[in-house]
Automatic annotation (TrEMBL):
Keywords: Activator, DNA-binding, Transcription, Transcription regulation. Residues 2-59 form the HTH lysR-type domain. InterPro entries: LysR_HTH_N (IPR000847), LysR_subst-bd (IPR005119), WH-like_DNA-bd_sf (IPR036388), WH_DNA-bd_sf (IPR036390). Belongs to the LysR transcriptional regulatory family. One of its GO terms (cellular component) is protein-DNA complex. Pfam families: HTH_1, LysR_substrate. It comes from Psychrobacter phenylpyruvicus. One of its GO terms (molecular function) is DNA-binding transcription factor activity. SUPFAM superfamilies: Periplasmic binding protein-like II, Winged helix' DNA-binding domain. The gene is oxyR. This is Morphology and auto-aggregation control protein.
Length: 306
């Protein structure tokens, strides 16, 4: 069987047109190199080099063989380079799924730090509900997804990097805006508006508040969380927002009050999910660490300004 080492010998001889110098480049004895060339020619059943005491010539068929050998080595080098660059953090683009109640609040906080640390990294974001994202992860259509736990993720790895509470939102002229905390009973009487079926924030809110899923009916199956926020600020009821949305909500609305829940948190946990055999687990862990650090810094800044 032809070996890469034999091809290396032949390419070195072609480069130097001299067996001794080729042997020195390959870090072997001249006799070992000559033996390797002879074995290669035997396996190919053709002569690659004409040699005598004065010069080394390449035969016509040898020229063709060496061109192909160089092509093989180039492919091997490319393969090695690609494998090594794969070990470099965030060396390749990544498609990341995010649920709608995370993406618009998380991305503004983490992207500046991500770009500062890894300016060449390219991330494509796919925004879908949780079940659809998990399906895309399982089938390899996306690299990973960021979802909110608890949620059933059978057959997938999870990498938690954040946890947070829910807050009720009111206009400042609402009497409930003066509360230090708000209970489930008070929420139930305040016309709590939640997203429709398929949104995990709704399921998690119902669990936190111990509301009966069969009795609670959402009329906002096609609405976004931002729509519910605007409706709450218009005095049409209240909704729950995740902690990572607080800074954005207060920055965009001066007359807003966000009230923590009486029910003990954390109310949801944020995690990456990947396939069990996903090759870029280190990159996912790295993203999780970057996102966590950015969220912690943002939270400290928000609390110091509050």
């Amino acid at each position: 069987m032809i070996t890469l080492r034999q091809l290396e010998f032949a390419l070195a001889v072609a480069k130097h047109r001299h067996f001794k110098r080729a042997a020195e480049e390959c870090n072997i004895s001249q006799s070992a190199l000559s033996l390797g060339i002879a074995e290669l020619e035997k396996q190919l059943d053709t002569q690659i080099f004409e040699r005598n005491n004065k010069q080394v010539l390449i035969t016509p068929i040898g020229e063709e063989i060496l061109v192909r050998a160089q092509r093989v080595f180039s492919e091997i080098n490319d393969l090695t380079t690609r494998a090594q660059s794969h070990q470099t953090p965030l060396a390749y683009p990544m498609t990341v799924g995010m649920i709608p109640t995370i993406a618009p609040y998380l991305l503004p906080k983490v992207l500046p730090e991500l770009k500062a640390q890894y300016p060449n990294f390219r991330m494509t974001v796919v925004e879908q509900q949780t079940e659809r994202l998990l399906e895309q992860v399982r089938y390899g259509h996306i690299d990973t997804a960021i979802i909110a736990l608890p949620y059933a993720v059978d057959g997938l790895h999870t990498f938690e990097f954040w946890q947070e509470d829910f807050f009720a939102i009111f206009p400042t002229d609402n009497p409930l805006a003066k509360l230090e905390t708000i209970s489930s009973d008070q929420l139930g009487k305040a016309n709590l508006m939640l997203l429709g079926e398929g949104h995990c924030l709704t399921d998690q809110a119902l669990t936190v508040c111990s509301f009966d899923r069969d009795e609670f009916k959402s009329n906002f199956s096609e609405a976004s969380l931002n729509t519910l926020i605007q409706m709450a600020l218009a005095g049409m009821g209240t909704t729950l927002i995740p902690e990572m949305a607080l800074e954005q909500v207060h920055r965009q609305n001066n007359e807003v009050a966000t009230i923590p829940l009486t029910e003990k948190g954390p109310h949801r946990r944020i995690a990456f999910v990947t396939r069990l055999n996903y090759a870029r687990v280190d990159d996912v862990n790295l993203l999780g660490n970057i996102f966590k650090a950015a969220l912690e810094a943002d939270k400290q800044n928000y609390e110091s300004d509050a």
